[in-house]
Amino acid sequence: FLPPRGGSPAAAAHAERVRELVGGSVQHDASHPIYNFLFEYYAFDPKILLRWSSGPGHVIEAAGPVERLLWQGRGWRQMPTGGVYDPATIKPSLRRSLISNLEILRRSSARAPQLQCYGLHEWAMLYSPPGTPAAH
User: Fold this and answer.
1) How far is 110 from 113, CA to CA, in rounded Å?
2) Is residue 116 part of a domain?
3) Alpha carbon distances (Å) from 43 to 37, 60, 97, 126, 136
4) CA–CA separation, 49 vs 28, rounded Å?
């Protein structure tokens, strides 16, 4: 059993680390090239990074409606004493996406990096020919 969400040292350390990585706030400067790439180009909500999970099978005591809403369809199972992350309850569509993402991570981590692009990919993402609207 773990203390309520946010009440554990691990959850607090996780939130602090996320804030360090995204510049102290989950609000970001869209003009910053890295944050723009992560949060605008990919339309990724940085607040999702603040979600801490104890991992599968660890009951979080006194977990209630907030946790249900955060994790609904994503593996949350309510229990009399709190709640637990249970991968068996993940929606099939999300499960397929997670498995696909995991496979990409497995394959890419086993390969040597390819660093010969000389920044062209990043340039192409931001380049806007004269007379066209800016990409971001």
Assistant:
1) 9
2) yes
3) 9, 30, 17, 15, 11
4) 13
Domain count, the chain: 1
Closest CA to 36 of 22, 48, 15: 22
Least confident range of 97-101, 124-128, 129-133? 124-128
DSSP state of 3: P
Range of the domain at 51: 9-126
Length of the chain: 136
Percent of the chain with pLDDT over 70: 69
Written as six digits, the tokens of 31 are: 């003009």
Q: Which helix (H) or strand (E) holds 83?
A: strand 82-90
Q: How many CB atoms lie within 10 A of CB 26?
A: 16
**CA separation for the pair 23, 29 (Å, rounded):** 9
Please indicate, yes or no, if residue 136 is contained in any of the structural domains. no
Q: pLDDT tens digit string along 87-120?
A: 888 888 988 998 999 999 999 999 988 777 777 7
Q: Does residue 77 sit within a domain?
A: yes
Q: Is residue 83 part of a domain?
A: yes
